[in-house]
Amino acid sequence: MEMLRPSLYQSLDEAKAEIRLLKIDSLETTFELVTVSLKDAPGYAALSYVWGTPTDQASVIIQGQHVQIGRNLASALVRLRRPVDIQDDHSLGGQTFRRSVWSCVERILPFRTHERHPALYLWVDALCINQQDLEERAWQVQLMGRIYSSAQVVYCWIGSIDYSLAFNSLKKVAHEVRRQSRSQGVDTNKCEFQPRSLWRYPSLCMTTDLSGYFPSNKAWTSIWKLLDEPYWRRVWIFQELVLARRAILIGPSDATLSWIDFDAATVSLFPLGQRLIRGQKQKPFFISSMVWLKLTRIRPSVAAVLVRSGRELLELRATGHQTDYITQLEWEVSSFAQVFAATDPRDYIYGLLGITQLPISPNYNGDERTVSSLYVDYFDGWLKAARIGSANLSILPLSFLSIAGAGRYCVPSDLPSWAPNFPENARSEKRDLGPENTFFVGVTGKYPYVISMTRSLFVWGFQLERITYVADNLATDVIDVNVKKFLSFVNGFLARHSIYISGITPLQAIWRLMLQKPPRHANEEMAQCLQALMGLEAIYQPVLQEPKQLTEISATLDPEALLNAFPDADLWQYFREAQSWNGTSDFSDIIQLQYLNRHTRCFESESGYLGMSYMGIAEGDYLCVFCGYDQTAVVRQSNAGHYYYVATSYVLDIDTQSLIERGKIEPQWFELR
């Protein structure tokens, strides 16, 4: 947004908690800014929206001045010139019906007149805060909690796409969820949507779109696209949804959807999808197979799920719940920032202060408050809160190491290597590596702490052993290169080892490392491995520069080699059962291998353990376990003696106790910088 002229922005009185409101008149083409105090403000609405890219601009007139604002905001203001029905969607009544009918009549009458509706007073951050005044911006951010919680309604502008079909369809689902909750005598929050109730809505049961390559259902497709909107991924929007007394989703059409209905519908659909995937629900005859498949892919927006936790915090705080529990819950809610995105790195912390009320004051003056110092202080506060040790809530002190590390993102950063890197985490694909390492569970007395002056984190733990071999693959989007590097590592590992350190065969070790989950039985493990390798061969053999790599691995198709690689499998039983297994497993496993080849590197340790970590690991790094962290860590020692945190890792079948006893390793304090 361009710098507005000073006449638009008169100074606000912080002592009076003054804010500006944008006055919108339905018959005027210009807007007006008015100053009010939150202590006696008139009824107003607040807008929740995505700012968009700085280059996509539109012009509006405010008090006679042309002002450049984001095009997405301009579209929202155009919509809000028309009245919005803020009746709760489940509150049926004649007044709502009559208003809907009259709205239709107004549209078709050629002699209709333009009615002047009452002016709307709207709080919208881009215009109501002087964005060029860093001091005003900082203390207005501190008022966000009051601004959104005091608004009569928060309008959630999803964007310029018309989601009328999704809105109306979700209303139907929400209506059925409430019907089911009443019949079962349970709260809607605990009610799972029952697909048999869809018989009342044929448009949600049948294939309705034959225009694309695959048949589809327009309603469920619209819902899926709605849930995938960037709107749900912004940290500020999460706070706005938590604080709103009443939230209404709006778009360019007159259709609306209350948050009550959106929440009831989308959250109840998620457990249904999980059951369908596991085959725990039988498809009703009136639902098409395509719709049934679509239901398995419906996921609630992350915001919708986490908003409930945020509102729980507000409710507990209002009822005067025990202080220690509230303090820990505040910090835990602050950690939700890791699943959202923000333009300014400081907003991952500032953007949730209206909910969390952490003892941190917003400061956008880079000369006084660097991003690095803010993150160090934030993590220091996190550690102190985690140390409270409430019996009702457990915060893992070093849990943020999962989104930290010099080797995790491989981009320059001013942050200490151990600090949570919210900005890069938002830009990366989310994936956790492997199950927990529970070696330090229950150990107390050696608590991690921060020294702000040197930006150091001190942690207690064991330096297990050195990484001696790292797969020679680098991050690249050239798929055949990734596959080539992966297959080279596989062939080398198979040649170096006749048996893995935990007693399984090398090919089993490779496969279990890739999937990071134990097999249900040996036959299926063998089937998955072979299907994936055969799939890679079929897809990439023509483009590989050294096709013999795949041919070497394909030797496992020989019955004798198969039995050697999977000694617990029954080869002939495998061939009899293979026809009945899930035919999608081979494709999903290939996708898994492609992802791992692009984002991770395999390694071996001194003892021969096989592991996986992120692209920045190197030979000579150390595997460690830390008190207060449930993953195996990778660190790099500096010439000065301190360490840099590299990344989280997954080490297959690692026996931490045996390594410590065999190597007579003593625990130590690690200084991470």
Describe the protein in words.
The chain has 673 residues and is an alpha+beta fold. The chain has 25 helices and 17 strands. Strands 2-1-6-3-7-8-9 form a seven-stranded mixed beta sheet, with helices on both faces. The longest helix is centred in the first third of the chain and has 21 residues, at 164-184. It is globular and about 80 Å long. Residues 91-114, 547-551 and 581-587 have low confidence and may be disordered.
Offer a quick outline of the entry.
This protein has 25 helices and 17 strands.
Q: What percent strand?
A: 5-15%
Helix amount: 25-40%
Q: Characterize the biggest β-sheet.
A: 7 strands, mixed
Lateral arrangement of strands in the main beta sheet: 2-1-6-3-7-8-9
SS-based structural class? Answer: alpha+beta
How would you describe the shape? globular
- For this entry, what is the oligomeric state of its chains? single chain
* Number of beta-strand segments: 17
Low-confidence runs: 91-114, 547-551, 581-587
Radius of gyration: 29 Å
Question: In DSSP terms, counting alpha (H) and pi (I) runs of 4 or more, how many helices?
Answer: 25
Termini distance? Answer: 38 Å
Mean pLDDT level: 82
